[in-house]
Specification:
Cytochrome C Oxidase, Chain A, globular, 2 domains, mainly alpha
Length: about 625
């Protein structure tokens, strides 16, 4: 009997489909298709990655020589704040969201996510939050640091930019929590027949762990942000010491989110590496069960290490010791993964595609960041280098040498699934060498700057400090990384138009997403595949008796219809936020009429939120 992989997509029998999808801009505004949502997340993430990189280049130019006057201290603080906020919340996280949307349904053999309209709502809330955050540039960008420590974020020390920052982050938190719940339900309820939990691909496991992290880590920071909003808008004193408040409360609420957030950023890249290395080593992943459970262990322990960011905050020796031990323990599952990856490569028939080059470089680069992280887990050492450039070097090796490098590997590997075309390997190798060389030139010397006493968040320094040559080297490295990124963008654009057609399975891969057409049809699979092993597509192609066969009767395929309702609800929520922001302005200079305009918009939008939600619930699927 023929298998579905052998049938052209157009020839496979389909008994029923829903009405044709809308076309043009309307199709994107109303879509609930996880693949289109993945593309929009990916485009937004790429834009904000470029924006965050531009912000970094500006302040790196300021630091390249001593006593530079390119920008002021206030502008420097604003650029640093927005660079970090942009890279974490608007670049790397939506890159992970793009992969989650594209891959989770395809890799588990599902037609879509469990709640397609909630998925669209998550996208629109992300877009709204990112626009609110960046609108702060029009009124004075926040300059209190991406961590927003109280009392720097109070009205006495920060302008209206912090209002945009706090409210934008609340919208982004809403987006992430919605997505987290949706994907958890999808993975545990929509897997293909025969796909037990231990047959779920490692990539899906890592993405599922981060959905739990999103669902449970964002509520604390959302609460902290709401308390900050009340302090700034309504005069409460949650963080004001003179009125009985506690600034350290903010630190606990923020870092209770902030350190699980690190694993939200890095676990997708660990999943990418765990998928790419076996394909291009022509071997199964060494110790797949250990890789899965080490990822789950990281997710659990990640909630117990947040206060290692607060060793200088005066918590006392008992708390410092507990969080130090927990931080060192979490290095163990990370080390397990590294040895699993090395065991996968060992003895393999390695094919050095660009995806493989990025995946293999991830191992040493992330290890450098991990080793300095273990060093910083020691409170005495952390007390010496805290708020120095040693810490900057550490977390950039983790987030750039780890998260970004891993996501680049995934981008080259799964780009054909998005577009149906392969990216240029020649341009990809130029991108690889420029970016990796620039990364090490930028961040490795910063270990020495930190040990030589250069603190973080200074916008200039005296000539006799002895830091000029190394800072110039760091800036040159940043420019080389920027050149590599330019090659990547050119490669993405030109390959989408003129790239070699990929076909269904260009890499001879092992997981179900390569069973579908490239790009996949709206319904993903013409038939629900029955999974017989951890490597269903490899076994289908290479193991007799393990083929994925088409059913004897065609399936009835029903896909959710496009909907305006998620966008309507998002607009109502954004209207409430904009009304609240308007109460902070005084355009007319008299008795603050804008306050009443703002409250009017808030009341109208607040009434529209339940109305639009009711219309959403009442709409048939």
């Amino acid at each position: 009997m023929a298998s579905i992989a052998d049938l052209p997509q157009s020839e496979a029998p389909i008994q029923h489909m829903v009405r044709p999808a809308k076309v043009g801009i309307t199709s994107w505004l109303t879509t609930v298709d996880h693949k289109k949502i993945a593309i929009m997340y990916g485009v937004a993430a790429t834009f904000y990655f470029l924006l965050g990189g531009l912000e970094a280049l500006i302040f790196r130019a300021q630091l390249s020589v001593s006593n530079a006057g390119l920008i002021s201290g206030e502008t420097y603080n604003a650029l640093v704040t927005m660079h970090a906020t942009t890279m974490v919340f608007m670049a790397v996280m939506p890159m992970a969201a793009s992969l989650s949307n594209l891959l989770i349904p395809l890799m588990i053999g599902a037609r879509d996510v469990a709640f397609p309209r909630l998925n669209a709502f998550s996208l629109w809330m992300f877009i709204a939050g990112s626009l609110v955050l960046n609108a702060s540039f029009l009124f004075g960008a926040p300059s209190a640091g991406w961590f927003g420590y109280a009392p720097l974020t109070g009205n006495d020390y920060s302008g209206i930019g912090v209002d945009f920052w706090a409210l934008g982050l609340v919208l982004l938190a809403t987006s992430s929590m919605s997505a987290g719940v949706n994907f958890v339900v999808t993975v545990f309820n929509l897997r293909a027949p025969g796909m037990t939990l231990m047959r779920v691909p490692v990539m899906v496991w890592m993405l599922t762990v981060i959905q739990f992290l999103l669902a449970f880590s964002f509520p604390p920071v959302a609460v902290g942000l709401i308390l900050l909003i009340f302090d700034r808008f309504f005069g409460t004193t949650f963080y004001l010491v003179s009125m009985g408040g506690d600034p350290q409360l903010w630190q606990h609420l923020f870092w209770l989110f902030g350190h699980p957030e690190v694993y939200v950023l890095i676990l997708p890249s660990m999943g990418v590496v765990s998928e790419v290395l076996p394909v291009f080593s022509r071997k199964p992943l060494f110790g797949q069960t250990f890789v899965i459970f080490s990822g789950i262990f990281i997710g659990f322990v990640g909630f117990g290490v947040w206060a290692h960011h607060m060793f200088t905050g005066g918590m006392g020796p008992l708390a410092d010791s507990a969080f130090s031990i927990a931080t060192m323990i979490i290095a163990i599952p990370t080390g397990v993964k590294i040895f699993n990856w090395l065991g996968t490569i060992w003895g393999g028939k390695i094919r050095f595609t660009v995806a493989m080059m990025f995946a293999t470089s991830f191992i040493p680069l992330f290890t450098i960041g991990g080793l300095s992280g273990v060093m910083l887990a020691s409170p005495p050492l952390d007390l010496q280098v805290h708020d120095s450039y040693f810490v900057v070097a550490h977390f950039h090796y983790v987030l750039v040498g780890g998260a970004i490098i891993g996501l680049f590997s995934g981008m080259y590997y799964w780009y054909p699934k998005f577009t149906g075309r392969l990216m240029s390997e020649r341009l990809g190798k130029i991108h690889f060498w420029l970016f990796v060389i620039g990364l090490n030139l930028t961040f490795f010397p910063q270990h020495f700057l930190g040990n030589w006493g250069m603190p973080r968040r200074i916008y200039t320094y005296p000539p006799d400090a002895g830091w000029d040559a190394v800072n110039m080297l760091c800036t040159i490295g940043a420019l080389i990384m920027a050149a590599g990124t330019g090659v990547l963008i050119y490669n993405m654009v030109i390959s989408a138009v003129r790239g070699e057609k990929a076909g269904r399975d260009p890499w001879d891969a092992s997981t179900l997403e390569w069973l579908t057409a490239s790009p996949p049809a709206p319904h993903n699979f013409d038939f629900t595949p029955v999974v017989l092993s951890e490597r269903p597509l490899w076994d289908h192609k290479h193991t007799p008796g393990m083929q994925i066969e088409e059913p004897t009767q065609p399936e009835v395929i029903h896909m959710p219809a496009p909907s305006w309702k998620p966008l309507w609800v998002s607009l109502a929520v954004v209207g409430f936020v904009l009304g609240l922001l308007l109460t902070r302005f005084n355009f007319y200079g008299d008795a603050n009429p804008d306050v009443w305009v703002g409250y009017g918009i808030m009341i109208f939008s607040g009434l529209m939120i339940p109305v639009t939600i009711y219309r959403w619930i009442d709409e048939p699927c």
